[in-house]
Amino acid sequence: FQMNLCSLLAVFSLIMIINAKQDDTCEVCTKVLGDAMSKVTDGERNKPDVIGRVIREHCGTARNKDHKLCFYIGALPESATSIMNDVTKPLSWSMPPAKVCDKLKAMDAQICELKYDKPLDWKTIDLKKMRVKELKNILNDWGEVCKGCTEKTEFIKKIEELKSKYVKEEL
């Protein structure tokens, strides 16, 4: 009986791990399409051209990973190719964004390879131990630049100056 219980627990754990992995696949795509669809009025949710326009408008202000996804699907003027029809038509049929993204994965695997960076723990972070590239990424995520910064200490100083504006948790 105990062996069966252990086997059952192992199978259950495996199922939970597989489901957890499925939940975070295409996280950027699902979020971007979900956010864009939330801007489409109820009466126009069945119109692919309206959905396409809203996605393009949404992508116009997107940054970082969201911007990269917009580039991949062709929602930006500088995109090399476009698969917007494969995005807008299923959405107009009320297909959930996660399912649309899953279908897009078959066309372009890099769409679902985009993942959001884990949030930084500002209580324990040591900026001095970070690379300059990581410091630049923090500023980039905030939409800021450090003009004239050449030394690591200058990037750290800029982050420290702006931290209160962008880090909302208790420090």
TrEMBL record:
InterPro entries: ARMET-like, ARMET_C, ARMET_N, SAP_dom_sf
Main location group: secreted
ARMET C-terminal domain: residues covered: 124-166
Identification of the protein by name: Mesencephalic astrocyte-derived neurotrophic factor homolog
Pfam family, one: ARMET_C
Cellular location(s): Secreted
Keywords: Disulfide bond, Secreted, Signal
A biological process from GO: dopaminergic neuron differentiation
Signal peptide start-end: 1-20
Species of provenance: Pristionchus mayeri
One Gene Ontology term, aspect cellular component: extracellular space
Family membership noted in the UniProt record: Belongs to the ARMET family.
Coiled coil: none
Domain (ARMET N-terminal): residue spans on this chain: 26-119
Function: Required during the maturation of the embryonic nervous system for maintenance of neuronal and cuticular connectivity. Essential for maintenance of dopaminergic neurons and dopamine levels.
PANTHER family: ARMET-LIKE PROTEIN, MESENCEPHALIC ASTROCYTE-DERIVED NEUROTROPHIC FACTOR HOMOLOG
Keyword Signal carried by entry: yes
